[in-house]
Every structure is written in C-alpha cells, then in structure tokens.
Amino acid sequence: MNVTRRNLLLGALSVPAATLLGRTAARAAAAWPNPLIVTVSGADATSDPIRIATLIEPFRIRGVPVTLTVNPYGSDGVTLDYDSKMAQYLRQTIREENSDLEIGIHAETIDSADPYVQLRQASGVQAVFSKAVNEYERYKSTAVTTAYTLTTNSPLASHQDGASMRATGIRSVIRLAAGVKDEVGIQPDKGGYWTTDTGLVNIFGSARSSSRPTPKRIPDPAIIASGIGKLSTSDDPIIVDIPFAAFAKMSEGELASYATEIAQAVMRSTEAGESRPILPMELHRQSYPDSHNLVVVRFDDLRVDAKRDPAQIALVEEFISAGYPVTEAVVPVSDNKFLSEDEKIEAYLKRMVQLPRYDVSTHGWKHQPSELEGNTVEKNLDLIRYGVAEVFHATGRMPVSFIPPNNAYDENTLIALSEIGTPVISAEKHDFRWFSGLDERGLLHVSNTIMFEKSWDGDYPYRDTQTVLDMIGDKNDAVFSIHVSTANTPLKMQQIKDVLSFLSGRSGTRLVNFAEYRNQVLPPLGSYDRIRSARAEVMIGNWKPSELADKEKAELLSDAALAWRYFDWGMQAFNGIAPGTSWMEDGKQQGYPFSTMWDVASNIMATVSAKRLGLIDETAMAERAERILQFLGEESYRYAGVRLPPAERRLAKQAGERKGFDSADTGRLLIALKVLDNETGGSLGIDKLVGKWGFHKILVKGEMHMISGKGRPISLHDNSYANYVSNGYRLWGFDTKPVFGEQDPSRNMDDAVAAFDEMTRRGRIATEPHLTEEIELGGSPHGRLAADILFDAQLKRYRETGTLTATSEGPVGEPPYFTYQGYQITPTGGEFVVDAPTTKQAGQAAKREERLRMVNSKASYLWYACRQSQYSDTLISFIREKGKLPGIGFASGVGEISQSATGIADVNTNGIILEAISYIMAERTPFLPPEVTSGI
User: Domains (ranges, CATH) in the chain?
Assistant: First the structure.
C-alpha cells in the first residue's frame, strides 16, 4: 500500500470522529473508532420492497445507517424499470430524505480490469439506476439522485482498479467478501481500503463480518459480532454485509430477527468504542474535504450578441483574477462572421487561454435553435468539425467539451462529436439515459446542469439563490451554467457571485472547469485515449481544408506525367506489363522482369488513372487493358482441380518466379479488374476471365487462403491486408467471412476499442492498404481507424524527432531489397518497424534498419489525397523535392538518414501516385461508385 496516501486518508477520517465524540483532534488517528459500513447488497428489480424494509429497519431504529445497493440489471436479466414496484419504493425512500440510508448500485462482478470497460459498465448501471429513481418534478427544485457507492463481488485487480468509475459519480467501490477467487492477490482478506488517483476509494470486505451464507449454513450473528471485534483491532473500515438474495428462503419474521441480532452486534461494537457506523458517501466526504463533489463553472454564449460580449468578458476576467475556474462557451459563427474573422474576440481568447484556470468550449455552430437536430451525420459532422476547428485555431487549444445550443441534439449529433474525438458533452438531463457517464460512442456526458433561469421568456425570471444551491446539492458533480445576458439587474448579478462564493468556501466542494474536471475523474483509458486523440488530431488539430488551386493542379498533372513515364517505358519494354522495379545501370534503364498479381493490379489502376487524367486517350487505354487481360489469361496455377492466378509471372526469359497462389495479391487484382470493368462499361469480358478462376477452393469457410509453392493452403484472413483485399472477392460475388466481425468502429467506441486491440494483435499497420481502400472503394470504418492511428503516430514522431515519417512497403537499394515498414502498436504506445519479406532475411533488415528507413513516396501522396492537413502538405513537398527520378518516375522513397532518393522506381509506387492524383482531381471521389460497392 501507498503509506502516504493511506495516512492521509486516516488523518482525514479522524477529524469528524473527534468532532462527533468531543475529543481533541490532536489524538492519534489510530485511537478513533473504525468506520463501520452496513450494506444490504444485491437487491434488484424483482426484489420485494417489504422484505428489504424488513432487513434494514432493525438498523435504522437503532440509529445505525444502512447502505442498500441495487443491481439495475438483475441476475435474471430484468432491468430496473421506472414503473416497477422496486423503483417506486426507491423513489418513495428518496422523497423521505432519510439521512441514515444511502442507496447505491450493485454489480455482481466487474467485467474487466480494463478501465475503459469498467467505465462503460458503471455508466450503463448508473444510467439505468438514475432513470428509474428520479422524478422530473422533484429535480426541478432539488438535487438529483445518483448512486455514489457500488458494491461488487469482484476482488481488486490493481491499485487503480475502478478509478474510471469516478466519472459516473461513483465515489466508493465496496468489494464484498463473496468467495470469488482473488487471481491478483493484492486485496487483504481482513479488510482495508485503497484510494485511486481519481479519488475513488476501494473498500474491502472481510468474510469475518459478512453474513454471506456458506454451502452449509448462514453465519450466526455471534460469529459476525466476534468478527467485528477482531477487525476493530486494525485501523481499517469494517464492512458488515448482508447479501439480500442469499436470504430468499427466510420468512419475514426470520429476516427481522436475523437483522436485529446483527444490528445489536453493531451497536455493542459502537458502544464499546470499537467502531462508528457511517455511510460510505459520508465517509468519502470526510476523507476528501477539498474534492468530494466537483462543480464546473460554465459561462455560456460568448459571441451570441456582440453588444453583450464586453460585459461577459469583464465578468469572466474578474472571476479568473479572483482565482475561480471558468469554461467559456464560444459560438464559432455569429451574424455570419467566423470566429477567425473576429479579431477582438480572438485576441481575448488567445490571452485568456494562457491563464491556468481558463478553459474554452465550442457552443454549437451559429447558436440557432435545433441547428444540430434532424440532420444527417454528414451535415452535423461538417457543422461541428468546422465549429470546433474555429475555436481550436483561435485559441491553439483543443476544446475538451462541446455544448449544444438550447440543449438540442440527437443521435447524429453524438456520432459526429465522437468522429472528431470530442471527449465531453455538456447538456441538460433529458431522460437521464446518459446523465453522468461514458456512452457507447465514447462521449462523457456531464449533464447535471443548473442555472438561475426559470424560463427564457420576458425578463428571464430567476430562481432564488437557495433553490439553485439546493439543485446543485453537496453530493453530485454538477455544472453551474451562467448567462451574463440574463443577469440584467444588480440583484441577479449578485446572486451569481453569491453562489460561486458559497460553493468555493464549502467543505467537500471544488470548483473546476471542464478540462480540470476531466483530468480529475478520468484515469488513462488505454486504447480509448489513443483512438480519441488520433481522431481529434486528424479531424481538427492538423486538418487543413483547402480548394485545389490552378497552380497545384498543374503540379499534380506534372507529377502524374512523371509517374506515367514508368508505365509508358515498362509496357513497351516488357510486352504490355510494366515490371516490378526499375533502375538505371550503366546509363541504361533496367527492369526486374517479374510481376505479381498486385503488380498487375497497379498496371491496371495506372492505366485507368492515366486515361482519367488525360495522359492517354480511351483508345490507348483499351489497347493497354486488352494486353493486360490477355496476359492474365495466358497462365494459371492449378490447385485442387481449378485454375487460379499464379503468385508471380516472368516477363522475360529469366526464370525464378515465385510459385503458388497469393490470395492477398489476387484480392487487389480483383478490385482493379472491377474498376476497369466499371470504367469500360463491361465491354472487355472481364467477368468471363474471373469466372474461369476457381476461388471457391481457396475460400475455405469464407476465409482467404494462399497456396504455398508446395501446394499447402495457409489462411490469410488474419493478415493486416485482409480487410482490404477481401473486398475484391466480394465485388465479384464470392462470399468471404467478415474480417472484423460485425463491428462498426466509426459509430461505436466499444467496437473501435475492440478493433484497435485486434489490430494490435494482427501486426504492423501501414499507409497501404488502408488509404488505398479509401481512394478505390471509399474506405471502411476499420481502415479509417487504422489510418487515423497511423497518421497520429507519424505526426507525433515528426514533432518529437523532426523526422518526416510516412510508412509503407516498397523496394530498397540494399539487402533485403524489399521491406515492409510500418507501425506496431504496443500496450504502452508503439514503434516504427522495418520488416523483411521472409524470416531468412530478417537479419539483413535488422542490421541495416536505420539505413533502410525511408519516407515512402506513394504513402506521402496517399496522405495528401486522403488527409488534407499541414503534415500531408509537408510530405508531398518533400517527395517532390527529393523523390523524383527524372525520366523514370518516382523513387520508392527518400532515406531518412541519407535524405536522398532510393534510386529504385517501382510499379506500385508510380501506380499508386497516379491513383492518388486521379482521386484528387476527381474531387476526391473513389474509383468505384457507391452503387457498385454497396454490397460489400
């Protein structure tokens, strides 16, 4: 245990004990009675309220506080519904405002040790609970009810276990002595506690004070009394647990008698000075007098009305100067004037963000009623993305929160916010579905918003100060929303100041802004953090939208002409098929006389791109395409009685081609053939060519298999290219098993986290094939996720080291002559790797790793095509300057150390560059239209 943290908690616990018992606070902490918590745990929607009351009443009539925890999902799957008898009982109990009863939530087990999964689980439980126990009329004038304590049978998994649950309002997790095997072994079996970095406290129960039945009997109250006495010799909290469901066979009379004996045992311990009964919520408050509940100070509506802005600015500056935290909500567009055009406000924001307790939030788009409701995801994404970008560029700080105007938002608003990596949404309670917690899209809802305005009519009538304080309460985290425009009298202005003054001086309450709030309640969340920050960087931070200027069009066409030079030469020199690689030797251009099916695909895509760009006419495209199709029909690889495209073909007399069948290369070939078929209106008979290949033999149970040179099938469905190349088979009607199941990481953060973890397991990620998929097919959620993660990692490496980074596969000028360069995600981050094609060549790559690293040319053009950004501008400028081989084409890359071109051009580099330029010139429209790709 952390001794410092432990002693701090004990010291805090001793203060209220001294006050309660009239003793001097100077006495040693160990002298005060142990905190004792009585829990009736694990009731659910089907529980009988009468039996619950029978259990807890013997404690309450003796002045012993009780914590009742309810499982909102229930062991039999029945959810705690608002109209259920149990929910009605809970609401009635809440209305009675009993100070000796706390109602919490119960989870039989915590699903995972992963903090993201724990946060999602606690959020779901809290959401169901909050919706069931709160009455709309009641919370119009008083604080809402949420659960502050969670009981579970799961032992502690780490010292930070449960930390993320603090973001849902949970302050304490009581880990009951339920006989669940402790796999980690860090939880003491005699009780104790541990405090996480977010302020959540794990409190451990002991079997000595639990009434949980064993297989043979229910513990005698005398045994529990003895256990309490033994546990009181330590200085740890004591948990007296009564698991509700375990006593289902007892009559009400037996329940009452049993509970009475336990209550009497607790009273004897209390009277002997061994323990002091307390609710876990109160224990946490005593332990954390400075940060028990957090209240966000939010100033809305900067730039709603330019005439009112000076008054708001003056008040915010006054509060910041006085040491108060502030999040100021900024409207990106006001009176059709962008924030970036508002010099005075922009200067004000740039000055304010330098101050330690000032924070900004994006307040919609134009602050119009329902501007984010009823739109498509795409429209909301545009509005929100441009709005957040305005605030980011005006301040240099990524907004932590988003505040929809008038609390008006819908599902498509939330999806769009998730896609740009927004961490927090602050809006009204709505139906409590996500009152406080992380939703499935990865958005943290902070919805307990309190304001003075009773309504927005007339002169904006205010609530009285005490009502506002009652609504904020002293337990929940809350948002105090201030509208300077409605504080139109000195009295109203004074009310605002009085509330802030009172809250800042109240023990247990800490005023924060949204940035501070998020940092306090959320620990590192692993994969979630990587995904969210990557989206924010790609969609906002490095985003640089721009129109394609005439000068840039001319440069792109010049680049395309150079790339096409490779094919013009190669197709003439090698009978219609440009070779895999080319270089200058003794003053003459040489070519590697072999072609894989991936290379053939690049020949096809280059030909289509050249025609689209006006480098060749339709007749020339048809002639070249017919030769490629003829080439594909000339030879086959025979396997299991069917014909398949061979792994590699020779283009000259030189032997040595690779034998077998490559399902990944063929998958890309099939995509290229579909592009060509669509481009030519089906006039070339490509369907007949594809129909001759027996792919059903290599799609075993829907999984793609390569066939080795010795005829052995090997599944490639787990390959990092599988998600892209499987599309080729489906485009021609061959069913394949989903590579990533049915997940949709673009709409669901749970799916995104699962996909991210799966990508980590599958191996390195690189620019190809994920961006290739985008320009050819429109992309997939999984491909875009991988690309965003890679873009973010490359950009961070560049910022940290000054080394431009654009990774992909390609030929190099020394052994092993071809490398796969990419990014391997690791649990603590990631590393950029250089891999050889075979294990035999791995040693060669390892020895020369730093020399082999290069800024990949085709990757740079793909980033420029697919991610308009400052970084992609830098990449393409670098390759234009250093990556050209005059008269040949583009080199495969530029060495990171040498800063010079590799000296080798290749079919895939120049083919992909042509594709990327064609995609850009077609207003970034994929090669295949949605009507062709919709079925895949």
Answer: 1-32 (no CATH), 36-287 (3.20.20.370), 293-522 (3.20.20.370), 593-739 (no CATH)
